[in-house]
Amino acid sequence: MPQYKNPPIYELGPDFYDEVEPAQFPKAILRYRNQDAAHSIGLAHLTAEEWQKHFWSFQPIEKNIQKPLALRYHGHQFQVYNPRLGDGRGFLFAQFLTEGKLFDLGTKGSGQTPYSRNGDGRLTLKGAFREILATEMLESYGMNTSKTFSVFETGESLERHDEPSPTRAGVLVRLSHSHIRFGTFQRLAFLGETENIKKLIDYCVKYFYPQLSSFTDLERAAAFLREVSQASAKTAASWMISGFVHGVLNTDNMNITGESFDYGPYRFLPTYDPAFTAAYFDEAGLYCYGRQPASVLWNLYQLGGALMKAFPELPVQDLLEDFSDTFSLHIHHRLLKRLNLRNPLEEPAAQADLNQELVTDLFSFMDQEKGLFEQTLFDLHSGANDERLQRSPQAALYQKESFAKLKDTLNCYEIADNQIAVHPYFQQGKACSMLIDELEALWKPIADNDDWAPFEKKLQEIRSFRGVYT
Q: pLDDT (tens digit, 9 = 90+) per residue, 89-146?
C-alpha cells in the first residue's frame, strides 16, 4: 500500500475542505465489496473486520487522511449558480498513488457536514444499489468511470419523497481519479481567491496532468483547460455510444479528469431518442440524452470563466473551439470499438467521412425503426453477420428495406479483432442491458425478501463481457 508523509490533499490546505465527523450507524451489513478495485490500490488484503472498520465506521487508514474532509465547492445547478454547495453527505476519506495515478476514496451517505443544507446526510440503500449497477455497467462498456468500492447497509430508515418510505439506508465508498470538480474552481472565483485558483491548477497538474508541469502559469492554465475539455469530450462521446443519460450534468458533477461519476437519476436508453430525459425533475429536458454534449461544453465555459478570474487573458473561446471535433473523433472511435470494426481506408479525410456515414446510417436506422438501443449495437458487433442477426429478438428489423443502407456501410469495414468477435458473450442472442424496468425488477426481491441473488446474477452477467469494449 502506498505511504505518504502527508496525503496530497493536505498540500492544498484548509481553504479547500472542512474536517468532519462520520456518522455512527446502528448496523453493518456488507452488501458489496469491489475486490478488483481494492487490489488496484493495495487494499485487497483487508480482512472483513478491517474492511468494516475503514468503510463503515471510517476509522482512518494508517498514514493516510486522519480525519474525513468535506470538500468545498460551488456550482451551476441546471445552469443557475448556487454558492451553497459542498460535500453535503460525503467526504474524502483516503488517497492512494498507484502506478503514477492519484486515486481518492470518497463517501456517499456518511453523515452531515457544514454543507448538508438541512439534509440528513444519508443515502438510501436503493441509491447505493443503483450506483453499483451504473458503475459496473459503464466499466464493462469501457468507460472512464468512478468505481463503487464498498456498500454497507446501515440499519437506519429514511424518509424520501421520491421512493416508497420509510426506506433502508446504506453508506457507499467510491474510488475516483480525483474529486476536484469544475465547481471547486467556481467557488474560488466567486470568492475572488486568485492565488488559490493558481494553487489548485498546480495541484491538478502535479497529480493529474504532469505533462504540463514545465509550462509557465498562463500556459499551464491554458493547457489545463484544453486537457479537461478533451477528456470531457471523450466522456460525453462514451455516454452517447453507451446510450447513457447521466441526468444531472451540473458543474459540481463534472470532474477535472473527465471521469464520469456521481450517479443519481441516471437511465439507459430503451430506444434511440434524443429527447429522452433521466431525471423526473428535469421538466425542460435540459440534460436529456441529445443535449449532453452541449451541456458538457457549457460547463467547460463555466470552468474557463472561473480560471479567467486568475488569468484574465486566458483565451477560453479559442481553447474550447475544438471540443466538437474532439467529441466527433471519440464518437467514431467508441462506435468502432463497440462494433469491433476497423476502417480500412488510409487517407484520414476518407476515414472520417466513412465513419461519419456509419454514425449517420446507424442512428437513422435506430430512429426510424425504434429498435432497442443496446440490442442493436450488440447485434451489429463485428458487422452485419446474417447468422447472428437471425438469432436476435429483433431479427425482423434486419429484414426491412430500411436496414439495407446501414448494412452496405457496415460491409465497408473489416473486423478489428477476430478473437473478440467469437467471445462467448456474443454467442448468445440477447444483449445485457440495464433499463429502468430491469433495475426495478432487481430491486423488488431485495425490498420484499432481502433476496440479493438476482442482483448478484446480474453482476455476473455485466462482468461477463468486461474487456471486450476497451
A: 999 999 999 988 999 999 999 999 999 998 999 999 999 999 999 999 999 999 999 9
| Whether 279 contacts 287, CB under 8 Å | yes
The residue type found at 247 is G
Residues 6+ apart with CB under 8 A from 216: none
Report how far residue 31's alpha carbon sits from residue 131's, in angstroms, rounded to the nearest whole number: 13
**Predicted local confidence at residue 165, as pLDDT:** 85
Q: Is the pLDDT of residue 189 over 60?
A: yes
pLDDT value of position 3: 46
- Say which of 252, 262, 282, 379 is annotated catalytic: 252
Catalytic residue status for 252: yes
**pLDDT at res. 95:** 98
With a cut of 60, say whether residue 43 has pLDDT above it: yes
pLDDT per residue as tens digits for the range 281-336: 999 999 999 999 999 999 999 999 999 999 999 999 999 999 999 999 999 999 99
pTM of the model: 0.96
Q: How far is CA 282 from the centre of its chain?
A: 19
